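Hello,

Our lab assistant flagged a job as stuck in the queue for most of the afternoon. It eventually completed. Since we weren't sure the result was trustworthy after the delay, we are filing this so someone can double-check. Below is the sequence as submitted and the structure that was eventually returned. Let us know if re-running is recommended.
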Amino acid sequence: MSLILPKRTLSRRRLLQLSGLSGVGFLLGGCGTNLLSDNVWQISEPLNQRLEALLLSQKPVPEFPVSAIEADKLLINTFDFTPQIDPAQFRLRIDGEVSNPMQLSMADIHKLPLTSMVIRHICVEGWAAIVQWGGVRLRDLVALVQPKSNVRYVYFKSADGYYESWDLASAVHPQTLMAYQSAIRCLGNHGNQSAHN
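-- returned structure --
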């Protein structure tokens, strides 16, 4: 694994200043006063977003040839249980602060442009594998529902109860997929659909 560092560099002093101010927001976030926490949020959130922009690259990750796939290393885990999903009954619901909320069936999803890529999947659980994924770019789904101008984060919940939230910039990265295929199997036709790592 290698780290991709941003082109801009921060001095140690500036990094400590930014992290100190963001840290104040974390400490006060647990306090019971909404007025104070709202004021701290208004100060710390823009700093947090700038720090994320400096540290998190939106550059594409390297892609690999199909011959590099490590199918034996891919683990598809479930959070709490293995859901049994009927592809004919499945609906992807996209709602919240959007102008065009919708529910898509698997047939609807399959009508959208398929994107396939072979990348190194690095799981939050600590394992990694070079895998081929196929699915719909999340940016295409986001474009369909048209988020309102105040939206900064996207919330996901899988069929097994796993949930996560991402900043909108990460969600619309060109390599972020709502995957329904892997080189191993079509995820929509098996019981183990929650590849959420």
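-- support follow-up --
The delay was a queue issue, not a problem with the job. The result is valid. The beta strands are 91-94, 102-105, 115-122, 128-137, 153-157, 163-167, 177-182. Helices lie at 12-29, 34-55, 106-111, 138-145, 168-171.
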